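Thread: "does anyone have the structure for this chain?"

Original post by V.I.:
We have the sequence but no experimental structure in hand. Need at least a predicted one for the grant figures.
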Amino acid sequence: MDPPRVPVQIVDRSERVQAALRFAAGASAAGSLSAGLCYLCDQLATMTGSPVASVYVLEAGDELVLRGTFGFTRDALGEVRMKVGQGITGTCVETMSPVTVDDARLTEQFEYFPQLAEERYPAFLAIPLSSAARPRGALVLQREAGPFSEADILLTIGATRALTALIEAQNPAGAHVILRGEGNQRGRSLGVATLLSRALPRRDPRKASPEQLSAAFAAEREEIMQLAERARAALAASCRELEEICTTLTDVRLEERAQEHVARYVPPSIALERIAAEVARALAQHGPAARRAVDIEAFLGAIARRLSGIEAQRVRRGELVVSVHLPGLVALRSWAAGATGAVCATPRDDSMGGALLSALGMPVVWGVRDIFESVSQGDRVALDSESGEVTVNPSAAQAAAWRR
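Reply from O.Q.:
Generated one for you, tokens below.
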């Protein structure tokens, strides 16, 4: 007698199952690394029930660079970067172990990136990406609340191999890329890329007194005013943008607002972060005046670093600045340090730094949206501000032509 035949069960294709099947199929080999990682992050977010999934790739100089995300703006790709050991993600890669916290805002390791506004999703799960025992980056899931379960951790670890394989197949380090934007007609330049970060220190300096806060404001103003005097001496004519930058620094309302926060026992670094967000919201709908918010954020960030004892990112002679926005303060410091030029991801009217560098005769190209997807820290970059062409990792022949 034959055993009874039992029909097979066709698994219902729930949203999570469909996402898992798409993830298993992989990303298209024809797209860029960021496009592929963003696609896989989208599927992982659905599979794990997480509003945010991000991939950080380990690149030259021990830098972890955001190369893929779902849940955060793609404009931050390539711009958000941190060192191994920095923040929760950097700690995960440094220890090569999963790291999870229910509320990252309460941890000393939390690094705040204003372009991500991560405080909306404070529960973190960071899993290291590795290949043959070598670190390759990290996969990070974020939610409104924790904890992440062991099942979440196991599922996420199981997904890392596909991400690592994609990184190894398409990592753009050293790739030759030509991009285009709007140039300022100030000639050509060749330099080593320095990618500027807008990360604000979240170290909690509770012992900072009102006097120390005032001293930090005064020291930052004094340094910028001295650079402004050097710039005025070098300019052939007055520069409206330079004067606007100086006016921003002397706005006493910024310091008064910071002191109000400190009087309510808010740590100064968090107080400065809140003020920057308040200013951005207030100026967002005011057209050209909105450019001031970029300068105010840079100014307050510099003060926060002074109070936290964190050395500000420095531009060195011969380097070429790559930035999303180009704040006037950053432009002024870059010019004084001997930078060769600047590439900005956003358009000309987004910030005042480009206009200042143009007045000082430095080549600038604006509106290069894909620059952060194409360049890594330390890459050589050739810039032609006449045509708006930006070449990442030019050949020896191209570099020689740029020097003529």
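V.I.: this helps a lot. Residues 210-308 form one domain.
O.Q.: and The mean pLDDT is 85.
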